[in-house]
Amino acid sequence: MPTLLRPGLARVHGRSMEPTLREGDLLLVLHGARPRVGGLAVVRLPGGVVAVKRVVHREPGGWWVERDNPREGVDSWRVGAVPDADVVARVLARVRRAPPARGA
């Protein structure tokens, strides 16, 4: 049976995808969609943490994902490729940009 594609919304928490995304940004996502190299995906990392990461390339059994901010967060350099089953959704667009943090 084919995977059911379902649109949804996701909110960004953390700084690992700055400057592309920032804390509080609202994203339009497509659950069940295959990631695209160069695009963004919502993935489940070891320990159950759900995060947005950039899809770099396909590996046997999974996807190599990276953060845009080298000083924050976790990516495939630390945890290896993300298994297909742990790709939650493909990011389609940022719906709303969060306001800049105070003092920024």
Task: Explain the overall architecture.
The chain is mainly beta and 104 residues long. It has one helix at 76-79; strands at 6-11, 26-31, 40-44, 50-59, 62-66, 82-83, 87-96. The longest helix has 4 residues, at 76-79. The protein starts with 5 loop residues before the first strand and ends in an 8-residue tail after the last strand.
Which keywords apply here?
single chain, 104 residues, mainly beta, Umud Fragment, subunit A, seven-stranded antiparallel sheet, 1 helix, 4% helix, globular, LexA/Signal_pep-like_sf, Peptidase_S24_S26A/B/C, Peptidase S24/S26A/S26B/S26C domain-containing protein
List the helices and strands and how they pair.
Layout: E1 6-11, E2 26-31, E3 40-44, E4 50-59, E5 62-66, H1 76-79, E6 82-83, E7 87-96
Antiparallel strand pairs: 1-2, 2-7, 3-4, 3-7, 4-5, 5-6
Instruction: Compute the average pLDDT.
Output: 92
- Based on Cα principal axes, name the global outline: globular
State the separation between the terminal residues, measured CA to CA: 49 Å
Number of helical elements = 1
Q: What is the element string, with H for helices and E for strands?
A: EEEEEHEE
Strand order of the largest sheet: 1-2-7-3-4-5-6
Protein name: Peptidase S24/S26A/S26B/S26C domain-containing protein
Organism: uncultured Nocardioidaceae bacterium
Pfam families: Peptidase_S24
Domain Peptidase S24/S26A/S26B/S26C: 9-71
Task: Summarize the entry for a quick read.
The protein is mainly beta. It contains one helix and seven strands, in the order E-E-E-E-E-H-E-E.
